[in-house]
Amino acid sequence: MAKTSAVEKNKRRRTAVANQSAKRAALKAIIMNQALPIEERFKASIKLASLPRDGSKTRVRNRCEVSGRPRAYYRKLRMSRIALRELGNFGKVPGIVKSSW
Questions:
Q1: CA separation for the pair 17, 56 (Å, rounded)
Q2: Is the CB of residue 79 less than 8 Å from the CB of residue 66?
Q3: For a disulfide at 69, which of 16, 64, 73, 92, Cβ 3.0-4.6 Å?
Q4: Which tens digits make up the pLDDT trace of 63-84?
Q5: Cα dist. 97→67, 78, 79, 83, 86 in Å?
Q6: Contacting residues for 69 by C-beta, under 8 A, at least 6 apart
């Protein structure tokens, strides 16, 4: 089980990304627009830099829904390999059966 503080920090980051995404996208559009004057684009880049860093989408870490583990994460199932194996052994995940030969 992962540290509760790390899981909670990641949840806060997800909410910050959801709140800041529209503002960030608008500023990035201004920055990337070559038709605008350089001064306006520079002001937009300064505003973007002044926003909270945790509002960036790249700061969010994929974590297992069951255990909070950050590594060996399957995106499709939203869980780690260890949690997948445990739940698969108990028959809780449809289509997964423990192999035996």
A1: 6
A2: yes
A3: 64
A4: 999 999 999 999 999 999 999 9
A5: 21, 18, 17, 14, 11
A6: 2, 63, 80, 82, 83
